[in-house]
Amino acid sequence: MTHETTSPADWYFEDFTAGQVFRTQGRTITETDLVSFAGWSWDTNPVHTDAQHSEHGRFGQPIAHGVLGLSVAMGLVSRLGVFERCSVALLGINGWTFKHPIFVGDTVHCTLRITDVRAARSSNVGILERELTMFNQGGTVLQQGAIGIMVSRRPAS
């Protein structure tokens, strides 16, 4: 079952089940994204910032920083709204892979699949294991990996 949502919801640990799939909205990657990311990260490698240099490189044009893609993916997941009020802590990013470059003009979206739901030691939180995959407008997988998160349990009434 795929869920599409665009507004924050009052979801808690008890609302998630293994196998749920969410699809994010799309977002177009711009040259401004690359320049801004290069500026605040200090990663000004010519493969990201120099069109003339990149023209003669492997991809024929500048590519987005891999971590820029991961950051955009996390932002798109945030905009789903289902983690808006229950998110406690990101637990880790595992097996993250960069499958295909992201280019200026690509419109990306993500699917997020809940792979495991389990209780935590503390009675007021639970753990969600999630598989996140980023696609471009053509359906090519760009990046993917597992991202665990701690979420609040529904408060007692």
List the helices and strands and how they pair.
Elements: E1 2-3, E2 21-23, E3 27-28, H1 31-41, H2 46-49, H3 51-55, H4 66-78, E4 87-98, E5 107-119, E6 125-135, E7 141-152
Parallel strand pairs: 1-2
Antiparallel strand pairs: 2-5, 3-5, 4-7, 5-6, 6-7
Pfam families: MaoC_dehydratas
Protein name: Acyl dehydratase
Domain MaoC-like: 18-127
Structural class: alpha+beta
The CATH class designation is Alpha Beta
Q: What's the tally of helices?
A: 4
Q: Looking at CATH, which topology would you report? A: Thiol Ester Dehydrase, Chain A
Over the alpha carbons, how many angstroms does the gyration radius reach?
Answer: 17 Å
Order of helices and strands: EEEHHHHEEEE
Shape, principal axes of CA atoms:
elongated
Largest sheet: 7 strands, mixed
CATH architectural designation: Roll
Overall tally of structural domains? 1
CATH superfamily: Hotdog Thioesterase
Total beta-strand segments: 7
Domain MaoC-like: 18-127
Family: Belongs to the enoyl-CoA hydratase/isomerase family.
Protein name: Acyl dehydratase
InterPro entries: HotDog_dom_sf, MaoC-like_dom, MCH/BMMD
